[in-house]
Specification:
It is a single chain. The chain is mainly α. Helices cover 70% and strands 5% of the residues. It has helices at 2-33, 39-43, 45-64, 72-89, 97-123, 128-147, 198-216, 219-229, 231-236, 241-264, 277-290, 295-311, 319-334, 337-346, 348-367; strands at 149-154, 157-162, 180-184. A three-stranded antiparallel beta sheet has the order 2-1-3. A hairpin with a 2-residue loop joins strand 1 (149-154) and strand 2. Helix 3 packs antiparallel against helix 10 (241-264) and helix 11 (277-290) crosses helix 12 (295-311).
């Protein structure tokens, strides 16, 4: 009986999460058409969607799997530059923007998943701080590899040069007059056609939520949760630790790659420095403040904490100080029992749920 109730609560919670995302899309669309949103605010919509998807994907690794990853921006960068290369390569062959965008996102997703699998083989054998250090190194390595990459396209196809010494330039790609350079090493991707849009961002959020929430409620997801809660007990029950950790890690990397692809096609110029260690930490902050394993919390935290610095830009030098103060206040509030009890009293459903739980505990005690 209690299992059925928990399943119902989970379904209601998931439906509420989808509903909030759809409602936010409707409200933003109305405000945008009414001219309420400024041009700078509209420019934040797609990146905000990308960071929300990144927070959802990292929450799968940190909150559900229970492993600390500090190089998640590396998967985002793989997806971003893969998406840019695919989009620019298909520009002449596929005039449909929507189809080209879809193919680019899927390509970024697949390549990031492959990278996640390759990295996961050695990384997932480690635990705790060691895993965090290796994933941090992965993120920095990916950034430097992209800085050494020269990519161009002409009627003969794609041209690649790996330029670790910096001695070569785009002229060495051997492009024809009709050719175009896509990635110029440390200068990044330049002249990219910006085809990303807010609607696609919302769809990507909903798809990411669908994948992660269904994964958590699946048999595989329950095995991952068992590994997180007690690795030794899960292994003694015959659960293949490496297999299930790899599944969760690859799914997380794939979703991050899709977010990166959308992010990359939102800017005409993109450098690998946008996906540095600070970006990984920022996404981790979204997850921690939103609550480990709480997807709705990750969405709210990513939205507020991404938009907040831009909203405080008029305060110039003081905006980051105010941002830090807000972070501290949120951390204190989320870990304060008094605030949690107040939250329970305000929301009738929560209060009722708590009362029912107390009654069930009393009945169990009386039966014993």
């Amino acid at each position: 009986m209690s299992k059925v109730k928990s399943m119902k609560k989970s379904s209601v919670r998931n439906a509420a999460t989808y509903g909030i995302v759809v409602l936010a899309f409707i409200l933003v669309s109305i405000f945008s058409k009414a001219g309420v949103l400024s041009r700078s605010a509209q420019g934040l919509l797609v990146p905000a969607c990308c960071y929300i998807v990144m927070a959802i994907s990292l929450n799968l690794t940190v909150g559900i799997l229970g492993e600390l990853s500090l190089g998640h921006a590396g998967f985002m960068s793989i997806g971003a530059f893969t998406g840019v290369i695919v989009s620019m390569s298909l520009q002449a062959a596929i005039p449909s923007v929507a189809l080209r965008l879809l193919i680019a996102i899927l390509s970024g997703m697949i390549i990031a998943a492959v990278a996640g699998f390759i990295i996961g083989i050695p990384v997932l054998k480690l635990r705790g701080d060691y895993l965090a250090i290796v994933t941090l190194a992965f993120g920095e390595i990916i950034k430097e590899l992209i800085n050494c990459l020269l990519v161009g396209i002409d009627e003969n196809g794609l041209h690649f040069i790996f330029n670790p010494t910096g001695a070569k330039s785009a002229d060495d790609l051997g492009l024809t007059e009709a050719g175009k350079v896509i990635i110029k090493g440390a200068q990044g991707a330049t002249g990219t056609a910006t085809i990303a849009n807010f609607t696609t961002g919302i769809i990507l959020i909903l798809v990411s939520l669908f994948i992660v929430l269904n994964f958590v409620n699946s048999r595989t997801g329950r095995a991952v949760l068992a590994i997180r809660d007690n690795r030794i007990a899960a292994e003694s029950c015959g659960i293949n630790i490496t297999k299930y950790k790899m599944i969760a890690f690859v799914i997380s990397a794939a979703i991050a790659g899709a977010a990166g692809a959308l992010y990359g096609m939102n800017y005409s110029n993109l450098t690998s420095s946008k996906f540095d260690f600070n970006t990984s930490i920022l996404i981790l902050v979204f997850v921690v403040l939103g609550g480990l394993g709480n997807m709705l919390g990750s969405i709210i935290a990513a939205t507020v904490l991404y938009v907040l610095p831009e909203a405080l830009r008029e305060f110039a030098d003081y905006r980051m100080l105010m941002y830090a103060i807000v972070l501290i206040l949120v951390m204190l509030a989320t870990n304060n029992p008094t605030v949690k009890n107040l939250f329970m009293k305000i929301i009738p459903g929560k209060k009722k749920e708590k009362t029912e739980r107390k009654k069930e505990v009393k009945k169990e005690g009386a039966s014993k």
